Amino acid sequence: MALANLDMDVLRTLAVAMELGSFARAAERLGRTQSAVSLQMRRLETQLGQKLFRKNGRNLALTDAGDTVLGYARRILELNDEAVAAVRGAAIAGAVRLGVHQDFAEAWLPAVLTRFARAHPAVHISAQVERNTVLTERLVHGALDLALVFCQSSACGPGFTATPVGELQMEWIAPRDFAPDPALPLPLVMFEAPCVFRDAALAALERARRPWRIALTSPSLAGLWAAAGAGLGVTARTRIGLPAGLVPITSGLPRLPRVALTLHAIADMPPAVARLREILLDVLARELG
Length: 289
What we know:
Layout: H1 8-20, H2 23-30, H3 34-48, E1 53-56, E2 59-62, H4 64-88, E3 94-101, H5 109-119, E4 123-130, H6 132-140, E5 146-150, E6 160-169, E7 171-175, E8 186-191, H7 196-207, E9 212-218, H8 221-229, E10 235-237, E11 246-249, E12 258-266, H9 271-288
Helix pairs in contact: 1-2, 1-4, 2-3, 4-5, 5-9
């Protein structure tokens, strides 16, 4: 039996529809009618001989076969886009100065850098891994072109584009067997001030009238993980990049808020900066989707 050749355009429609959560939003982004998008999906189901979608209220949901196809579609599209970018962007050179929060250095940065370097080998990338305050200051003072930080969209002022990437849930993080004595102040392991996580954690404890004490402060995420892992206290982070042995805990502790993740970039972006921003947003959309 001859194998079917999947249509790249149809696969892109599928990927966009699942990213946005509906055929209507996908049609709007792709500049098509909703009926045209629906027809593409029906043809894909016919070509593969499998149902790809299932009912889930008003939300767009995939069957097991649909999940499989979507995974392959994203890989195929990524290779296609890399090939196009490599040819069109062969002449792109120069340098890009990227700043990312410490939480994302191991979790997301390698995939971004690998994909960018394959497509644009002539571009030099300077990746700076720091805390929020340091990255924001460097961006404002012209030492960075892009910065992925936990902050509001207006935090860096005029002269920059600010793209909301998503929101992450703050969590109390400690060893699985961590059991604080409710009769004693809660020991905390925190970044040095200022820190959005520190502020949120202390505010939540104050509202809950839960006594607390700072057991250790550190300027680095590695220091926080080491102290929390050693049982010195509980810290507040997201689930991104959690090391082995540490888990989110909820017993006896107030709920923490969600934190906004924003990508800031210089407004007048050279081609290399614009391309890295595009790849970064694409990787984050998949990771957070």
